[in-house]
């Protein structure tokens, strides 16, 4: 389901001229998203293998395209590297990035390179498309709509919690946790196919990807839609990660970012499948009138405060 | 002439959703360019006023659009800022950037913000358009074509030469040179209107902007077009800058980057005006068979080696 079937924009001229030249299909609106991945802020070289950094860098952009119900077409990478960075690291980074791009039918079409004043600095741009007027915005949620989330939550932040338990100076702490036990952190799969299906079937009235965490991303939907929400704590699908595998804490599922799942609302009464393709879909609550967002836990309601996701800030706070 | 007359792509959804949504006009190819502006590499806060940094950041991208004969539509800014950066600096930066965007009819439509691990880090994306199949590439130069350049060369690098004469530790060295005496460095005007006219009139067979300097950018055209060139040293329009004003040295005009002039080739025998709008156009040589690039000075030919532009590297080398 991951691979985009259509060729929604031809790349006429890629790397090697002043600009890339794309020819979009007729009848399409264009989607553009841009995301920084900065060493020390979004990743650490001692924590994240080069392939993971490249993969995550692009996953951020693809996930934004997914959240509009769109399909990616072209990728642009601005990459600044420290002078002493091993070539092997760069090759691994590009391998991770290009493998994910190919999986989604997107072409690396240009970008910029520079010497970095400090650390690896990457900025990814993804250009995609969606049929005219069909982009799923954050602003379409209405009172009574169900709130749904794909996959499970907190799996990415749980890896950060583990990584932060390792003293910074210890060599190669990533060996303490294995990427395969925390795939949603090291190699998150953006939900591009799912986003497209939700858009095609008219199931999503509003949609966002959970890059900042459920509490913050739901607040974004509510703010843009001028509505409130009630979330049932017991319904939240918590990620099962680690070795031995265990379910993440509720707080991690509520506030942990970078899961790159889709959070969307669907009209009241509309049947939403429990599974679309390989991805589980779970209703976790409903949109309400007003502007408050509540969490209901064992019958007790409390305000769900948007914590914001600070990347490495979870265990610090 | 700077302002784009047409509204070539409507921004349906700007800042505030997962992606920006653009609706391009029919019959257009899309242009995308991305450029880093990194503190310590592309600018220094002690040298460049905030407005100048914002202006130059965007000028790099607009100039790439100009070099394709295109028109800018939307601008995206990824901006990472150090925690202790004064708000006043950010306001100045945005003022410089937005003023230039408005002048060229481009809309700031999204981007990303992050905390910087060190220094101000900006990546600019400009999306523009050009009528289908009409983008002016680097690869269209043919033997016999004349080589032309807009404006004058070396004015930007001359500022760097002056700035580097000031010891690094001296406070506020930018007071040593006034931005108004080196406008091409501090506030370069990208040649968007000129690029469009050259494309409309079919005057340019190949085109590039002089971001890396004449010697390097001409080498790019020759490489992509599989041709050689002969440049007449006496014909090169050298910038007149400083206080008192003086003409820059030939070496600075040959190798200094970031002038953001247009370097283009025109078919042999085609009349190219000496001035288009307010911008002087000068023939400096001709495209030749083979793959060598020569500089002819007082009748003596020597190879013109592409030096590459290293931003602050000119006076270091």
Structure write-up:
2 copies of one chain form a homodimer. Chain A folds into 2 domains: 123 residues, 2-Layer Sandwich (60s Ribosomal Protein L30, Chain: A), CATH 3.30.1330; 166 residues, PurM-like C-terminal domain (Phosphoribosyl-aminoimidazole Synthetase, Chain A, domain 2). By secondary structure, the first copy, chain A, is of the alpha+beta class. In chain A, strands 7, 8, 9, 12, 13, 14, 15 and 16 form an 8-stranded mixed β-sheet that branches. In chain A, strands 3-6-4-5 form a 4-stranded mixed β-sheet, with helices on one face. The radius of gyration of chain A is 19 Å and the shape is globular. Chain A is 24% helix and 30% strand. The N terminus of chain A is likely disordered. Chain A has 7 helices and 16 strands. In chain A, helix 1 runs parallel beside helix 2 and helix 1 runs parallel beside helix 5.
């Amino acid at each position: 389901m991951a691979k985009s079937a259509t060729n929604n924009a031809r790349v006429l001229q890629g790397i090697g001229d002043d600009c890339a030249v794309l020819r979009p299909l007729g009848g399409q609106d264009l989607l553009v998203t841009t995301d920084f991945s900065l060493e020390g802020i979004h990743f650490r070289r001692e924590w994240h293998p080069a392939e993971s950094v490249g993969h995550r860098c692009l996953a951020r952009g693809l996930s934004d395209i997914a959240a509009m119900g769109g399909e990616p077409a072209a990728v642009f990478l601005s990459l600044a590297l420290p002078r002493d960075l091993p070539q092997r690291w760069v090759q691994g980074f590009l391998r991770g990035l290009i493998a994910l791009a190919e999986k989604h039918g997107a072409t690396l079409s240009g970008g910029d390179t520079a010497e970095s004043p400090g650390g690896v600095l990457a900025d990814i741009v993804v250009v995609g498309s969606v049929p005219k007027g069909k982009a799923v915005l954050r602003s379409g949620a209405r009172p009574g709509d169900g709130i749904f989330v794909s996959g499970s939550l907190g799996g990415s932040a749980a890896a950060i919690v583990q990584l932060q338990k390792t003293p910074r100076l210890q060599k190669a702490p990533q060996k303490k946790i294995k990427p395969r036990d925390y795939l949603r952190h090291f190699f998150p799969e953006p939900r591009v196919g799912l986003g497209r299906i939700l858009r095609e079937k008219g199931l999503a009235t509003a949609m966002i990807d959970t890059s900042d965490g459920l509490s913050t991303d739901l607040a974004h939907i509510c703010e843009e839609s001028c509505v409130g929400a009630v979330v049932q704590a017991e319904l939240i699908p918590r990620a099962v990660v680690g070795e031995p595998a265990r379910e993440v804490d509720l707080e991690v599922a509520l506030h942990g970012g970078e899961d790159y799942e889709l959070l969307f609302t669907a009209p009241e009464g509309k049947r939403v499948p429990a599974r679309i393709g390989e991805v589980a879909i779970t209703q976790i609550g409903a949109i309400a009138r007003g502007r408050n967002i509540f969490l209901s836990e064992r019958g007790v309601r409390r305000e769900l405060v948007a914590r914001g996701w600070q990347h490495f800030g979870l265990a610090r706070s």
